[in-house]
């Protein structure tokens, strides 16, 4: 078996890069179902990373269903890895078209989640949304705490749909775009941007609390389109040639 594994570039995403490289070997058939992966030591030397990085990469592949492990024997390619596992190659997201496509998918799912949440939410769901938004208000815009709370707000909305698949898919997507959102937050950090983003979330919460599924959908779509622009991606026109207008800036709301 000849694998095409190379050293990975240094950076904060080494485990993801190692996992992506191994995933490509599986997808291209050089690692087949039932094959045993090279040892941690061998992978460490091949990629030029620490064994801890390799362990984290294997753990990620295991959580995705790509591989399974047995104590004392090592890691093996899963039998059904080619047909049943949803994965997104981290390297592919460096391409603008792929990244924009992921944001487009996110917008479709998030808009539907908001509409369903408006129809199905409970009082407890609303309280969790309010608590999360309050935490966002207190966190510095663009900080890790802000991002973590922002993603939690969207997770709570997904949970309010009472559709477990909605939660799984949205969490999966969020984990793959979180670094870009964090980078955008650092780049655009300002009080005006913080207030604008908070206003977008408040509009979503108000619509869900009112049980207005149509407004919840529109508010979420507008928020995702604004978030798409914040990470530097152009927004494709919606059917009819128009995109949803962004919510007004805080100082415009009183005019």
TrEMBL record:
InterPro entries xrefs: GntR_C, TF_FadR/GntR_C, Tscrpt_reg_HTH_GntR, WH-like_DNA-bd_sf, WH_DNA-bd_sf
Q: Which CDD domains match?
A: WHTH_GntR
Q: Where is the composition biased (Pro residues)?
A: 244-255
- A Pfam family of the record is FCD
Instruction: Say if the entry is tagged with keyword DNA-binding.
Output: yes
An example of a GO molecular function for this protein is:
DNA binding
Q: Which domain of life is it from?
A: Bacteria
UniProt cross-references to SUPFAM superfamilies, sorted A to Z: GntR ligand-binding domain-like (SSF48008), Winged helix' DNA-binding domain (SSF46785)
Keywords annotated in UniProt: DNA-binding, Transcription, Transcription regulation
Residues covered by the HTH gntR-type domain: 12-80
Report whether Transcription regulation shows up as a keyword of the record: yes
Sequence segments annotated as region (Disordered): 226-255
> Would you tell me the protein name for this molecule?
DNA-binding FadR family transcriptional regulator
